[in-house]
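agent> Task received from the user: take the single chain below, predict its 3D structure, and emit structure tokens. No templates, no multimer pairing.
agent> Plan: (1) validate residues, (2) run structure prediction, (3) serialize to tokens, (4) report one or two observations.
agent> Step 1 OK, no nonstandard residues flagged.
tool_call: predict_structure(input=
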Amino acid sequence: VPKKEPRRQGKILSFDLEVIPQKITATLNQHDGKIIHLLLRNRGSRTFDLTLFTNVPVLTISEKNIILSPGETKTVTLLLNTDRVGIFVGRLTIEGLFAFKQLPVSIQIDLPGNHKITVAVPSSLKMILPGQDIFAMFTLTDLQDGPLDLVYLIKDSDQRTLVAEREQKMVTGGTQTFQKTFALPDTLELDDYYLVVEATQNGKTAQGVDSFTVADVLPKQQEFPERLYRESPLSFFLIVLVILLLHVFMIWHKKKYD
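)
tool_result: status=success, residues=258
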């Protein structure tokens, strides 16, 4: 895994800067117009002198320097340049003396008339622990009969490729859906990551993307089963087995006495 600079984790009063939306995503065709409005609100008691910048080449920020007084709200316009086809990932940074935010960015610009691919990381895996595997569902449309070449890339917010896999599938025309699991390096830092897929057939390439986050703490609804599975897989499977046996017993009992 390429070595990268440590990610800045924010400053004391970062929670006083509210940003909506919390991530920038867009899927559109080449040459389609797109404007995204970014709302910034100062919920603190200090004035924020903010600088906005991004490493995503197709994203233009209308106002890169903003002063937000306490309680003040401003809207920044983001313009998308859709002349280029492809997947563009990275981050948008909002930085000041008393505030620091980074928003993950993923922009998908498709070629009209080409086959399409949709990537979907399940909501339960949108936030994972270091070393945990992920899987995703892939849906391809407008395919033709024949071989399909697939390239899977895991990228970080600095646009570095950390994992790369290739495979070829024989497909029939129309729509194809499949899933795939990816083993991630234990050394991945706490950050936002992007699963990018390139699907090439008859010289034409379509791309799709979805994101996930590696964190040190999971949301409450994920924390117990994930932690139990990681720390004691045998206990996890025994609990699952007991639940299944109870379920079978309840079905048998109901049929016997009905």
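agent> Step 4: summary for the user.
The first strand starts at residue 17 and ends at 20.
agent> Done.
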